[in-house]
Every structure is written in structure tokens, then in C-alpha cells.
Here is the input.
Amino acid sequence: MAEKLHFSLVSPERELFSGSVDQVDAPGSEGDFGVLAGHAPFMTALKEGQVRVHNNGAVTAYDVRGGFADVTPEGLTILAEHAVEAA
Here is the structure.
């Protein structure tokens, strides 16, 4: 079984997601990126786009506008200026 990534997505209004997932793809200001468990630490600004959360074969998408992504040994945290679950 593959190792899971701890992921948290937070907007100013509330925490939209927190849990263990397989992969997260996000719209970085320097280009889109994907994060798996064990990824090297980095921090980047986000541009407008979709954060796609992959878990057990299912994909959940969130529309984000601005903010930051922080990858640490503990996982990925996205602090978005605006985020909602995609329709």
C-alpha cells in the first residue's frame, strides 16, 4: 500500500478539507505542480485554478484564487485567499 500525504485546504472562511490522500495537484504561480507523500519541502504562491485531490481512485476538485502552498515533511497545507468545492 502506498504512503498517504496529509493535506489541508484552508480558506479565510473555513477549512474545506483535512485528511490523508494519495496526491494533490495545484496551480502554482510558476506552473502547476503535483505533490505525493515524501515530496521535497517547498513553498509557492498560487494562481487562480483548480486544486485536484486524488484519493482511492476518486478525484475531488476545488476552485481557488490566490494564496500559498506549503509542502513540509508533515504534508501539504494550502492557505487560499478564496476556495470553494468545484461544481
